[in-house]
Write a structure and sequence with these properties.
By secondary structure, the protein is α/β, with parallel strands linked by helices. The chain is built from 10 helices and 15 strands. Strands 7, 8, 9, 10, 11, 12, 13, 14 and 15 form a 9-stranded parallel β-sheet that branches. Strands 2-3-1-4 form a 4-stranded antiparallel β-sheet.
Length: 339
């Protein structure tokens, strides 16, 4: 349920109303915009009578929210959320590119790629230390050592880092990571979602391979329910009957998220198709659809990459793609980060 307050309402009366709701065991999401202030009520609101609430002179209107996701719902928070991470703004017209290798392989490799993507204009370095793989015999990443190498690349280049977590047992290892990525296979790992909800780290939440939009937003709701409101959504393609590409990029996810949620959403064109020759056209589509950024795989030697070389751009390809991205993003009125 949402309660829309009248403009210039008396603070003492608003506080009294909020205390009334809290005494009933409800949680309140307070959202103050330029023109509207909303109290988003979470909990068992079935016992609330709209007429009783309207009796308070500070209340303009009351509306029940039918969607199961509440805190991430645009009705609860009409303004776009802007996250600030390491001096970069994410969401609401600010455009970020996160780039780097699928997997951290060595210090030389990750530092070389970090320097290259920074020079080309990327705002974050992405790289996998822990790698979820379909086959137990595939390269699983350097794990804790990979995290150390990412942090070394951050130290040398100044680029904040984005990397994937696979278990709640590893939370302490990610203390110095700027954005924790939750991969598609773990989108409904509810224990991990709850643990990330108790952290204060920004979370990059990827959509599951066959998740509906409601399931995707409910996964974000789990993180919000734990108290962490620093969530970035990521559409990375969904599994369909098509076998010429790895996944199908659901570009409609961008406008749908913008309709139903206030959270920023970025696109992963690398995983969407699994082919490097589709990264640039899918990036263009993401910008046109209104995405808040991109996460792109870049490797200094894709042919010899230990993981996902087929979808990774080499450094000259990334430089060319970034020039195209910048031109199109700025044409659409986005502000490229960092400035």
């Amino acid at each position: 349920m949402i309660v829309v307050l009248k403009q210039n309402s008396d603070k003492e009366h608003v506080d009294r109303l909020m205390q009334h709701f809290m005494d009933m065991g409800l949680k309140i999401n307070y959202s103050e915009g330029d023109n509207t202030t909303i109290l988003g009520l979470m909990g068992d609101t079935t016992k609330l009578d709209e007429r009783d609430i309207m009796a308070y002179d500070v209340v303009e209107r009351v509306q029940r929210v039918t969607e199961p996701f509440k805190a991430v719902n645009r009705k609860f928070h009409p303004e776009d959320t802007i996250l600030e991470v390491a001096g970069r703004k994410i969401g609401a017209g600010y455009f970020n590119v996160m780039a780097g290798p699928c997997s951290v392989e060595s210090e030389e490799q990750i530092v070389m790629v970090a320097e290259a993507v920074k020079k080309a204009g990327a705002s974050f370095l992405r790289g996998g230390a822990f790698k979820p793989r379909t086959s137990p015999y595939s390269f699983q990443g350097l794990e804790a050592e990979g995290l150390k190498l990412l942090l070394e690349a951050k130290r040398q280049t100044g680029l904040p880092i984005v990397t994937e977590i696979m278990s709640e047992k590893h939370i302490d290892l990610f203390a110095d990571v700027d954005i924790i990525q939750l991969g598609a296979r773990n989108m409904q790992n509810f224990m991990l979602l709850k643990e990330l909800g108790r952290s204060n780290k920004p979370i990059l939440l990827k959509r599951g391979l066959s998740a509906t939009m409601e399931e995707f937003l409910m996964a974000a709701e789990y993180i919000f329910a734990g108290g962490n409101t620093n969530v970035i959504l990521c559409e990375r393609g969904i599994r369909t009957f098509e076998n010429l590409i790895r996944n199908n990029l659901d570009i409609s996810a961008v406008p749908l998220v913008k309709m139903f949620s206030h959270l920023p959403i970025i696109i992963d064109p690398s995983h969407a198709a699994g082919r490097r020759d589709m990264v640039q056209p899918l990036s263009r589509a993401a910008i046109a659809a209104g995405a808040d950024g991109l996460i792109i795989e870049v490797h200094n030697d894709p042919k010899n990459a230990l993981c996902d070389g087929a979808q990774s751009l080499d450094i000259p390809q990334f430089e060319a793609t970034m020039a195209d991205i910048r031109r199109r993003a700025e044409f659409e009125g986005r502000e490229m980060m960092p400035q």
